[in-house]
Sequence to fold (611 residues):
Amino acid sequence: MCGIVGYIGRKSAIDILLEGLTSLEYRGYDSSGIAVNIDGKIKLYKAAGKLQNLKDIVDKDYREVSKSTIGIGHIRWATHGAPTVENAHPHSCNCGRLAVVHNGIIENFKELKEKLEKKGCVFRSQTDTETVAHLVAAKFAETKDLTEAVRLATKEIEGAYALCVIHQDVKDTIVATRRNAPLVVGLGEGENFVASDVPALIQYTKKAMYIEDNQIVTLTPDTIDLIDIDKKKVNQKFETLPWEPVALSKMGYKHFMLKEIHEQPDVVRNVLSGKLRAIDEPIVLKEVTLDKEKLKNLSRIQIVACGTSLHAAMVGKYLIEDFCGIAVDVEPSSEYIYRKTITDKNTLVIGVSQSGETADTITAIRQAKSRGSHILIVTNRPDSTMAREADSLVPVNAGIEVSVAATKSYMAQLISFYLLAIYMAEVKGIKDLETLKHELIILPQKIEKILAHKEEIQKCARTFANSKDFIFIARGINFPTALEGALKLKEISYINATGYTAGELKHGPIAMLDESMPVLSILMTGKVYEKMLSNSEEAKARNAKMIALTDSTDSNLYELFDSLIHIPPISEILSPALAVVPLQLLAYYIAEFLGKDVDQPRNLAKSVTVE
Ligand code: M6R
Fold:
């Protein structure tokens, strides 16, 4: 989703801004822009479409632009108004002396706009953000103090925002603030940075401070001042970021998605490391602080998440119910927050999020927290808003995921749920999970086998790449795998793909089957194997093109299925962690075959910071 970067120092700002924006590109966007100060005047450069379009415009004016040692930049994922040049950020006021970039949504922008128009402000865009530009400019006209102008403006703004503001009358100053949207400041020597996410500044500094809601930070090349909304000074807490810039390199792979799929064996090892020490030792989850007596007496668990994280949560439900006998509800965060949900202090609420910044999930956990529930967060970003607001944490350790389509973070979430479910079972005194622990330890080798022999998957991708629709069917613990396989395919290839429980096929979806419809059966040996075979027969009888993803070596399957994708044998309970890998690859190879923008699919954002 939108990204912000700001630089103030003694170097030319432009390259730093453009590199910062490039490192945020993966989040998904549809226009971009920068504001710099050239010879005492604010100048804006904006472009619709890819960042390269902005770079081309800037290039034409490079000698002038490179004079500026201050600047703010933005990539925009359109919410209010189409992705045009006029709607691209930065936005300005009537006099053009100020520039603002914004992530989030200003919910009361209509009321603010009406008031501002009455005072003579002329709006040039359809965005909610432009109201902030006019509002801060009006406050600055009264106070002649940019920090104070931003502070007063935030008192009138409702909604979610991370904002960065510069003004040509206040040279060498960037003012930034946030509410319900991430913002981080990077400390340099004779220079300072601000951004909506770490990748934009990690190559310049590892010393960073996360800004909290309603704090206002004022940056000059040599100083950083932090106050709260009541003007009180706030203690500055800088930390050393554990990140390496190399994490953002494709390392020879054609796409980040392919690289991230191949990282999964190591991701599993990382997640297990220090937590699963030996099969006869209990699981160690240091950051789970829920009192063990309370855990034993939990009445229910609710898990909230979105997209791929929701699918990991569905596997988690299956595991916790199976191992621990505690009732688990899984719900998309965006639904959970708009109905009367029954939670109390005996309910554990688990939020799952790769980014830790998904607005719907943040709101859901805040609601649950206000009702007294213990909040446990499963996230890939221990530095995120969710992690910082959690009572307990399960850090998933997948490393930064650049491709918009989640792959390795899903794997890490799944493995974290296996660990969490075993941990809870062990706290409850259930001890017969040693076989599963052993299987978890050898899982990376099985994933490596799939990655080393991709021929069946590539062949299947070539055969079905031109399909208009795709159906994935499964039962039991692999139903979420079917949903995830379908989500991956539609996200990056734009093929209409849907996951169904195989038993539901005959209650409606079977009407769609004919010779043009591929049906992929997730056919794992175990208790639903025979039933899956029957459901596949039913689809075959309607002339559907049948594909099996299976750990069975039964040669009779060649009679029923047109294509087969084999994976190493695995227990049914752990099979979601193996079966998803060929589905990620299938989606990847189909999208690649179709020439799609694999890492940055249209309309999607890596981190969805609006509700
Ligand atoms: O950061 P989160 O895990 O909270 O994000 C949730 C979804 O937006 C995300 O999983 C999305 O569905 C991905 N594009 C999946 O590939």
